[in-house]
Amino acid sequence: xxxxxxxxxxxxxxxxxxxxxxxxxxxxxxxxxxxxxxxxxxxxxxxxxxxxxxxxxxxxxxxxxxxxxxxxxxxxxxxxxxxxxxxxxxxxxxxxxxxxxxxxxxxxxxxxxxxxxxxxxxxxxxxxxxxxxxxxxxxxxxxxxxxxxxxxxxxxxxxxxxxxxxxxxxxxxxxxxxxxxxxxxxxxxxxxxxxxxxxxxxxxxxxxxxxxxxxxxxxxxxxxxxxxxxxxxxxxxxxxxxxxxxxxxxxxxxxxxxxxxxx
Length: 263
Known about the structure:
Mean pLDDT: 89
Protein name: Flp pilus assembly protein TadD, contains TPR repeats
InterPro entries: TPR-like_helical_dom_sf (IPR011990), TPR_rpt (IPR019734)
Number of domains: 3
Organism: Phocoenobacter uteri
Order of helices and strands: HHHHHHHHHHHHHHH
Radius of gyration: 21 Å
CATH architecture of the largest domain: Alpha Horseshoe
Distance between the termini: 16 Å
Keywords: Signal
């Protein structure tokens, strides 16, 4: 959702972070290679899983869970496998391995929700809404269901219904950061930048500095004409080495619709 200059900055920051942590990365890599060579047992499976999760190594998690499932079917591991594919961005594989869980009463709610998230990820928004409707009919108290449907509705241009879903998600105690960010993002999509600022600024002043929230707030400030405050936040939070260049780039950026948080 963000401008090219955001992506370049984040990329450079990532390179610098990797350089500074080279020794740690090598150590973690050695640990992962050692663990990967071990015969799966409950103990080393848990050890591998903890390490891979801490390093966001979804490829490692996928290999681990597939190895476990080759030996024995386990609905809990199957769900983790599907979720790892989703986190890696492979929604098609996630949906494929998720299918048996959709009829499993114990895992049905989790599986149906992940199915909706995968459909949103693969930009099948109308299908995501249809599946979310089924999910909410069966499990009406899950806040993530309303949030996911709200995102799909936003992408299909049904802003009023999307707003209702984001509010329902918040009423059901979805994280305030996620709910407020999505409500603000909806205002940004509609071009109501001052409304977005009114939603995001109190969160920021309360100490919330989640990445999407910061970027959406800066974008909304720039688009609503408050470039001075936007510059202050960019400098304070070190969002870019050149705050002025970033503001100039954002001023030329059109409306965006990809900053919604699914969780």
